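As a warm-up, study this chain.
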Amino acid sequence: MIYINAFILCGLICALGQLLLDNTNLTPGHLNAILVVIGAFLSFLGLYEVMLDWAGAGASVPITNFGHLLFKGAYEGFLSDGFTGLLKGILSTSSGGLSVAIIMAFLVAIFSKPKH
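Now compare it with the structure written out below.
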């Protein structure tokens, strides 16, 4: 059943994104930022953990999970170290994903040829 739940939730997130791209003047960058903020807001409300328990990878793969991780890290850092823990917490939870994204972007830039 977890596979069906993951498919449904991730499909809904992707369908929402596609509808916003098709019916508004938003760029993919705008949509990306909106989905990250939505993920952080759902995490603030305590709903994202419920989504993770219900759908597993269907909630942990989309970009909304990045917003959840940022909020979760900032909140845990704030609880443990106060105001300065906000930044430390954000960096500790998202550093792995950001590192992989930077390394992969660098490798793609090395091996691809620009059209101009």
